[in-house]
Amino acid sequence: MVVARMSFWKFKPGQREPGFNLLDDTLAEMARRTKGFRGNITLLSRDDPNIGVVISLWETEDALKASYEAVFQKAIKMIEQFVTGPPDAKNYRVFSAELRTLT
User: Fold this and answer.
1) Which whole-number Å values give the CA distances from 94 to 5, 27, 34, 41, in the listed order?
2) N- to C-terminal Cα separation, the chain
3) Residue 102 in domain
4) Structural domain of residue 37, as residue ranges?
5) What is the Cα–Cα distance from 17 to 81, expressed in whole angstroms?
6) What percent of the chain is modeled with pLDDT above 90?
7) Does residue 30 belong to any structural domain of this protein?
8) Pick the residue with more confidence: 103 or 36?
9) CATH number for the domain including 36?
10) C-alpha span between 77 and 41 (Å, rounded)
11) What percent of the chain stands above pLDDT 70?
12) Is 98 contained in some domain?
């Protein structure tokens, strides 16, 4: 069973791209090395230039829970200067997914 964490990040004006660039450059590698990591998707709101969403996928509920300290808390600390506060995060069970390589 694959599970996911969906986190909604509110950035200070003009700070969304710098914040996510920092995450992509450093934290993504940390997640890849974490047991049970299946992938992630970063979404940038088209309606609000200060909103971003991260969906991370994990093999099991235990892997999701372990990632909270190993990855998620570090992400919050890493970009705290770019955001207005901690993200709103919810955990989900993935019902279905089809992912293809984007070109």
Assistant:
1) 10, 23, 19, 14
2) 28
3) no
4) 3-93
5) 13
6) 66
7) yes
8) 36
9) 3.30.70.100
10) 20
11) 98
12) no
User: 29-79 pLDDT, tens per residue?
Assistant: 888 888 999 998 899 999 999 999 999 999 999 999 999 988 889 889 999
Q: What is the mean pLDDT of residues 82-90?
A: 95
Mapping DSSP to helix (H, G, I), strand (E, B) and coil, where does residue 102 land? Answer: coil
Looking at the structure of the chain, the number of domains it has is 1
Assigned domain for 64 exists = yes
CA atoms within 13 A on the CB side of 85: 2
53-72 burial: b if 16+ Cβ within 10 Å, else e: ebbbbbeeeebbeebeebbb
Contact residues for 59 (Cβ-Cβ < 8 A; gap 6+): 2, 3, 36, 37, 38
Alpha helices in 4-98 (DSSP H): 16-22, 28-32, 61-67, 73-78
Structure tokens given for 26 = 């450093």
pTM of the model: 0.88
